[in-house]
């Protein structure tokens, strides 16, 4: 991408995902606003959990997606919020398999809907795995606190869609090599949308 000549010069750093997870403060600066974007919400959830474990306050933009996770999790446990998270993990896996099977039967090309289901299932698996002995109710409380529509903390996670039009002095693009999605062949019409997503993240 060509940068417009009046734009200030920025720095781009490449860092292994594991290094960011192990030593996040090396990448977050001291006072600057930090925006962390990813193609999949599951990447944001996974990294946010690691940050919180290291006592780094953060939030994820997208209360609507958080609400959707809560609704799905409630449905998976058949509204019994006393279920332990450990017992819920196989139920999440079963829900994922059943949903993919259902979508594959409905759509001629289920790539888009299946990707959304996989992302949601991965998010729920990560969230429940952080608190195996705790109840689903506690996980729902955590989801409601983590997902927001206001970037109220210095470190904010966001999907690329939600980040459109936002700016920050420090931006981290998680798993940038998965955008465009490797599952979408260049011949597919959806591939152009994938390229657009990458452009939004970079700009």
Explain the overall architecture.
By secondary structure, this protein is an alpha/beta fold. The chain is 50% helix and 10% strand. It contains eight helices and five strands; from the N terminus they run αβαβααααββαβα. It has helices at 17-22, 41-53, 63-76, 85-106, 111-129, 136-146, 160-163, 190-202, and strands spanning 34-38, 58-61, 147-148, 155-159, 170-174. A five-stranded parallel beta sheet has the order 3-2-4-1-5. α2 (41-53) packs parallel to α5 (111-129) and α3 packs antiparallel against α6 (136-146). The longest helix is centred in the middle third of the chain and has 22 residues, at 85-106. The chain is globular, with a radius of gyration of 18 Å.
Rg over CA atoms? 18 Å
Number of helices: 8
- Strand order in space, largest sheet: 3-2-4-1-5
Q: Work out the helicity level.
A: 40-55%
Order of helices and strands: HEHEHHHHEEHEH
* Overall mean pLDDT: 88
How is this structure best summarized?
The chain has 203 residues and is α/β, with parallel strands linked by helices.
List its traits.
203 residues, alpha/beta, five-stranded parallel sheet, 10% strand, globular
How is this fold's topology laid out?
Elements: H1 17-22, E1 34-38, H2 41-53, E2 58-61, H3 63-76, H4 85-106, H5 111-129, H6 136-146, E3 147-148, E4 155-159, H7 160-163, E5 170-174, H8 190-202
Parallel strand pairs: 1-4, 1-5, 2-3, 2-4
Helix pairs in contact: 2-5, 3-6, 4-5
């Amino acid at each position: 991408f060509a940068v417009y000549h009046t734009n200030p010069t920025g720095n781009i750093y490449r860092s292994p995902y594991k290094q960011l997870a192990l030593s996040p403060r090396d990448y977050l600066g001291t006072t600057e606003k930090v925006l962390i974007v990813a193609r999949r919400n599951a990447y944001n959830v996974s990294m946010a959990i690691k940050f919180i474990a290291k006592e780094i306050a953060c939030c994820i933009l997208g209360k609507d997606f958080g609400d959707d996770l809560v609704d799905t999790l409630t449905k998976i446990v058949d509204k019994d919020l006393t279920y332990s998270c450990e017992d819920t993990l196989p139920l999440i896996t079963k829900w994922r398999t059943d949903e993919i099977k259902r979508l594959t039967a409905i759509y001629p090309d289920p790539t888009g809907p299946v990707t959304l289901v996989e992302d949601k299932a991965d998010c729920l698996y990560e969230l429940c795995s952080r608190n195996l002995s705790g109840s689903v109710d506690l996980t729902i409380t955590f989801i409601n606190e983590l997902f927001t529509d206001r970037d109220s903390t210095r470190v904010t996670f966001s999907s690329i869609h939600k980040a459109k039009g936002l700016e920050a002095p420090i931006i981290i693009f998680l798993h940038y090599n998965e955008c465009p999605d490797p599952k979408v062949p260049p011949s597919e019409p959806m591939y152009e949308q994938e390229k657009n997503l990458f452009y939004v993240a970079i700009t």
